[in-house]
Amino acid sequence: MKIGILTSGGDCPGLNAVIRGAVIKGDQIYGVKFAGILDGYRGLAEGDMIPLPRKRVRGLSFVGGTILGTSRSNPYERGGLENIKEQLHDNEVDAIIAIGGEGTLSAAKRMADDGIHVVGVPKTIDNDVAATDYTFGFDTAVAIATESIDRLRTTAESHHRCMVVEVMGRHVGWIALNAGIAGGAHASLLPEFPVSIDQICIWVNKAHNRGRAPVIVVAEGFAPLGQEGETTSRGMGNDGRLRLGGIGEQLAPIIESKTGIETRAVQLGHLQRGGVPTARDRVLATRYGTAAIDAVMEEKWGHMVALHGEEITTVDLHDATTELKSVPRDLWDEAGILFG
């Protein structure tokens, strides 16, 4: 049996740990072979695959990025289902482990519905995949954002400034919420809960009046109350989605004008996706990888490995891709007592 592994969508700390976990267990326990599908679904559509022996994955648990490359491609865009079947047949691949976020897993579900043998692994720094408690990469992104807030706080306090820290989060604010709490921010602005500019300024003034340097954490997908649509200054990406970014730069001069407090904005951007994964992400990613190979051997096609509590289980890809996992109101309200 030969299993193809691909990583698709945005890169994420821990991808290599999943690959390593799957290949080591597959080789040692089941005696199966692996093919690395290059650059996500592009490689699947074009049959661009390489052998993936055990020796190739040695020492990968702490390596960031993905040795297989990634892209935001659609497996059906070059010849449809018949082409996918042909590429798998020509490369003697019997099943696929697809590692990715909501878009990748939605494509995996479609393939499973069409009879392709596929198992999903949830990955995204945004932690927005439903039917699992955590996605690997999220812990690393929060740790990087928190460290950045810690560093920015010292320079803000030296100059008595307000700092607006923009983090990733297109539709959900898990990173902004958790990094804001961990970093002691005076407000966390999430896409799920629009608030007015006046309310933001109230929080800034409240912190400043206590002698603090206000720190505001904002998710890139946040839009102030009354604003239509997210902020973007970089147009459309190749995948047809807006390239978000710039809400921090939009808010900073408004806050400064309304409060009289010098305000600077910092956009963390891809720093949150780069570098080595945290210990927690390495462990979770490895467990996902070993569980994924088990799911393949048990022929759980159209399913995804997931974390429920401390247990790794499998869920139907339909449950994982029907809706995004957003921040519930009670968690944001809980954090709200710390604002200002």
Automatic annotation (TrEMBL):
<dbReference type="InterPro" id="IPR012829">
    <property type="entry name" value="Phosphofructokinase_III"/>
</dbReference>
<dbReference type="GO" id="GO:0047334">
    <property type="term" value="F:diphosphate-fructose-6-phosphate 1-phosphotransferase activity"/>
</dbReference>
<feature type="binding site" description="in other chain">
    <location>
        <position position="220"/>
    </location>
    <ligand>
        <name>substrate</name>
    </ligand>
</feature>
<feature type="active site" description="Proton acceptor">
    <location>
        <position position="126"/>
    </location>
</feature>
<comment type="pathway">
    <text>Carbohydrate degradation; glycolysis; D-glyceraldehyde 3-phosphate and glycerone phosphate from D-glucose: step 3/4.</text>
</comment>
<comment type="subunit">
    <text>Homodimer or homotetramer.</text>
</comment>
<feature type="binding site">
    <location>
        <begin position="72"/>
        <end position="73"/>
    </location>
    <ligand>
        <name>ATP</name>
    </ligand>
</feature>
<keyword id="KW-0324">Glycolysis</keyword>
<keyword id="KW-0067">ATP-binding</keyword>
<comment type="function">
    <text>Catalyzes the phosphorylation of D-fructose 6-phosphate to fructose 1,6-bisphosphate by ATP, the first committing step of glycolysis.</text>
</comment>
<feature type="binding site" description="in other chain">
    <location>
        <begin position="168"/>
        <end position="170"/>
    </location>
    <ligand>
        <name>substrate</name>
    </ligand>
</feature>
<feature type="binding site" description="in other chain">
    <location>
        <begin position="124"/>
        <end position="126"/>
    </location>
    <ligand>
        <name>substrate</name>
    </ligand>
</feature>
<dbReference type="GO" id="GO:0016208">
    <property type="term" value="F:AMP binding"/>
</dbReference>
<dbReference type="InterPro" id="IPR022953">
    <property type="entry name" value="ATP_PFK"/>
</dbReference>
<feature type="binding site">
    <location>
        <position position="10"/>
    </location>
    <ligand>
        <name>ATP</name>
    </ligand>
</feature>
<feature type="binding site">
    <location>
        <position position="264"/>
    </location>
    <ligand>
        <name>substrate</name>
    </ligand>
</feature>
<dbReference type="InterPro" id="IPR035966">
    <property type="entry name" value="PKF_sf"/>
</dbReference>
<protein>
    <recommendedName>
        <fullName>ATP-dependent 6-phosphofructokinase</fullName>
        <ecNumber>2.7.1.11</ecNumber>
    </recommendedName>
</protein>
<dbReference type="InterPro" id="IPR012003">
    <property type="entry name" value="ATP_PFK_prok-type"/>
</dbReference>
<keyword id="KW-0963">Cytoplasm</keyword>
<dbReference type="GO" id="GO:0005524">
    <property type="term" value="F:ATP binding"/>
</dbReference>
<dbReference type="InterPro" id="IPR015912">
    <property type="entry name" value="Phosphofructokinase_CS"/>
</dbReference>
<dbReference type="GO" id="GO:0042802">
    <property type="term" value="F:identical protein binding"/>
</dbReference>
<feature type="binding site">
    <location>
        <position position="161"/>
    </location>
    <ligand>
        <name>substrate</name>
    </ligand>
</feature>
<keyword id="KW-0418">Kinase</keyword>
<comment type="similarity">
    <text>Belongs to the phosphofructokinase type A (PFKA) family. Mixed-substrate PFK group III subfamily.</text>
</comment>
<dbReference type="GO" id="GO:0070095">
    <property type="term" value="F:fructose-6-phosphate binding"/>
</dbReference>
<dbReference type="GO" id="GO:0048029">
    <property type="term" value="F:monosaccharide binding"/>
</dbReference>
<keyword id="KW-0479">Metal-binding</keyword>
<feature type="binding site" description="in other chain">
    <location>
        <begin position="270"/>
        <end position="273"/>
    </location>
    <ligand>
        <name>substrate</name>
    </ligand>
</feature>
<dbReference type="GO" id="GO:0061621">
    <property type="term" value="P:canonical glycolysis"/>
</dbReference>
<dbReference type="GO" id="GO:0030388">
    <property type="term" value="P:fructose 1,6-bisphosphate metabolic process"/>
</dbReference>
<dbReference type="GO" id="GO:0006002">
    <property type="term" value="P:fructose 6-phosphate metabolic process"/>
</dbReference>
<feature type="domain" description="Phosphofructokinase">
    <location>
        <begin position="2"/>
        <end position="296"/>
    </location>
</feature>
<keyword id="KW-0808">Transferase</keyword>
<feature type="binding site">
    <location>
        <position position="102"/>
    </location>
    <ligand>
        <name>Mg(2+)</name>
    </ligand>
</feature>
<dbReference type="InterPro" id="IPR000023">
    <property type="entry name" value="Phosphofructokinase_dom"/>
</dbReference>
<dbReference type="Pfam" id="PF00365">
    <property type="entry name" value="PFK"/>
</dbReference>
<keyword id="KW-0460">Magnesium</keyword>
<keyword id="KW-0547">Nucleotide-binding</keyword>
<dbReference type="GO" id="GO:0003872">
    <property type="term" value="F:6-phosphofructokinase activity"/>
</dbReference>
<dbReference type="GO" id="GO:0046872">
    <property type="term" value="F:metal ion binding"/>
</dbReference>
